[in-house]
Design brief:
alpha/beta, six-stranded parallel sheet, 17 helices, 6 strands
Length: about 350
Amino acid sequence: MARISENELKAQLKSGEFSNVYIIYGEENYLKEYYVKKLKNKLVDSAFEDFNFHSYDGKNASMDDIIMDAQMIPMMSEYSFVLVHDFPFDKDKDACDKIKEYIKEPVESAVIVFWMDAIEVDIKKNSKYKSLEAAFSKNACSVNLERRSENDLAKLIVSSAKKRGCKIDMQNARYLISIVGSDIQTIFNELEKLCANIGEGEIDKKLIDSLATKSLQARVFDLSRFILRGDSNGAYNVLRVLFAQKEEPIGILSVISNCYIDMYRVKCAKRAGANEGDIANYFNYKGRDFLIRNAARDVSSVSKHALRSAIDVLCETDEAMKSTAIDKNILLEETVAKLLMLRNA
């Protein structure tokens, strides 16, 4: 078998030619769940689900039990289907060895799917997952469902709006992504709300601004823009709203830090002659291209030295939040004041 893409998985679902074992992982949670459900619906006859469908929570699962269920003869069906949710392979060497051995000669009448939902499978940094994924890609199917590109997400929004009876153009679809984020489930939820409001009309920027719920990232972008303009009133107004909405200070600090890191990357890259596309590809901004565009727009009036100083301030605040008992809201307010001082200087 092999490492297969989303399109190749779609082709298998259409043709009915399945692998006997899959590991499905990656950054896009919505797509992982979507394709797990597609596989189940394709492979399991609801009339015989009690006999042919076996589901496990990985935290409480035994690999011996999983393999035993796979060896059961399916009733009135070509396959039995075994779904394992978040099996902690990195903590169970014995289970890794057993599944590696099993996939060399799997039971032909069973399909096992290891759905890695909350567990991150990092094959670059985790040697156990690297070895496991290599075994799956050789003898079974490894499916990495990554974030879709911003352009693909925008096309998805346009087509989904059309199915709901309303319209949105590509420019406003990209704007919606910048407001609500690149999580597909969140996008669908917000699109449903917008289409319900507009009926058969067209979704424009004004409607998005009035109805779409801004992600924490988008709200902190507003905060960062006020800081970069030297607008203390605007910055502290946004901060007060974030506090009122019970957002965690450390989460706010993390997004502010990411904004400054994005700007620093853009500043350095442009001095080296690279463009926005180069930056997005090198630092894996797939599906989040708007972050680079925002950074490029905001960084023009800020010096490289000021960005470095700002990042130092943010690092110091991060350390203070994690190592002292000082109120985190106060630390964040002080940090905003320091960033404003750096900007005005």
